Amino acid sequence: MARIAVVGAGVGGLATAARLAATGHEVTVYERSDTVGGKLGRYSRETPDGTFHFDTGPSLLTLPQVFTELFEATGAKLDEYVDLVPLDPIVRHVFPDGTRLDSCAEPTIFADRIEEAFGAPAATDWARLWRRAERVWDASWRDILRSPVDSPLSLARLAWRLGDLAAIAPGRTLRGLGRHHLRDPRLRMLLDRYATYTGADPRRAPAALVAVPYAELAFGGWYLRGGLGTLADALLSRCLDLGVVVQTGTTVTRIEAAGGRVQGVRLAGATAPARADVVVANVDALTVYRDLLPSPSRLTGLTDRSLAGFVLLLGVRGSSGLAHHTVFFPDDYDAEFDAVFGHPGRGVPARPALDPTVFVTVADDPQVRPDGHESWFVLVNAARHGRSMSGVDWRRAGLAEAYADRVLDVLAARGVDVRDRLVFREVRTPADLASDTAAPGGVIYGTAGSLLRPANRGPAHGLFLVGGSAHPGGGLPMVTLSAQIVAGQIGPA
């Protein structure tokens, strides 16, 4: 039995802790916040009209089989803890010309919807792309997503499968893949959006990210009744039932190591380190290698940060008739990416996009809003917080409120005007996410769009990395798979 310290009680940290405790280890989780869940955050607002509840992080659960396996591995059943609700549509896409396309988890039905919205040639194009996406997904699931990947050589294991290599198309971008397969610009726009699932610009993101829409549309999108934050509650409950000690309000200031091995963690205000045989870091890899266990050689490539998000939490009177998820696309998608990422090499700084894509989540769930009202989560892509050319100083006086006004004006221009129906609005910027979750710059996914993320095994013996900034990447299922990989590397007691 090893003494294991887990730094951070996000989904990756809690999932790892539960797996390790179930195999006999002594596990303690240290969380700087007063609550668990990390970026799977929640917010509640009491008003005279009633209480509004919001998920402030992920709003969609995909690959439910990953979570089913996690709970079974720890001796429980997922449906005993959360109530999964399948979504149809998974996402409603509203394009600049006013056409709509509802995605769903039935390929034949989705193809019919594409044909009805865009015509038969568009449906044929999508079917051809779908076959390629399936090959990429199968190769990724078999060889990458559930296995350690420590270097570019690890990815070379695919090379001998020529069919896989051709489908993955190394060197081609997601944008290039869309232009090759899809003639309709609206379908290309839909495909481009999946690059933002990894925090990337589709013009630079690898074509292999075509596996992302496949995973969503093949296995479905799900909502958890009461909000996705209930997943954090479920994981915490599993951990406590398995004997994990969870210390919230406890900040780890350093990972202690000597002789090439971890020794434990240093806690803020403590006179001596908390001893541990193994340390699992569920914090951003940049924070680990810059601050907790300085490792300059490991910082290479970690400065290419993903995009962040600008969020409005709205209490709205009345009913909007919106789908659970609705995406309103702009006229010029490239202008949005030019703004969010900037061109530092050309002296063009990142900035708020004037005409952004707007993603609105409205859960038809009486547990999260008063009768006769709706709780709206509104998200737009945003540059990270910072004062460099690749960031925006979201703390600058007046900027957040002015941009919130702009986002509401954009929504109104696209046919959804709620400005006269607001009970309240709460503004969350990348600076707030940076403060709340210690995510550098408030970025969502760590390194932007790369297939090769920091390895799960750290440079000191007994150090492991888990979570969205490490392999296999961001998003709830990927983070949960990273926990499976790490627990497998550590092994049973």
From TrEMBL:
The record's GO molecular-function terms, alphabetically, read: oxidoreductase activity
Tell me which residues make up the Amine oxidase domain: 12-490
Q: Which InterPro entries match?
A: Amino_oxidase, Carotenoid/retinoid_OxRdtase, FAD/NAD-bd_sf
**Whose protein is this, by species?**
Micromonospora polyrhachis
User: Which PANTHER family does the UniProt entry name for this protein?
Assistant: PHYTOENE DESATURASE
Q: What is this protein called?
A: Phytoene desaturase
Keyword terms: Carotenoid biosynthesis, Oxidoreductase
UniProt pathway annotation: Carotenoid biosynthesis
What the record says about family reads:
Belongs to the carotenoid/retinoid oxidoreductase family.
Could you give a single Gene Ontology term from the biological process aspect? Answer: carotenoid biosynthetic process
Instruction: Quote the Gene3D superfamilies the UniProt record gives.
Output: FAD/NAD(P)-binding domain
Q: What is the lineage of its organism?
A: Bacteria, Bacillati, Actinomycetota, Actinomycetes, Micromonosporales
Record flagged with keyword Oxidoreductase: yes
This protein's record includes keyword DNA damage: no
Which Pfam families does the entry mention? Amino_oxidase (PF01593)
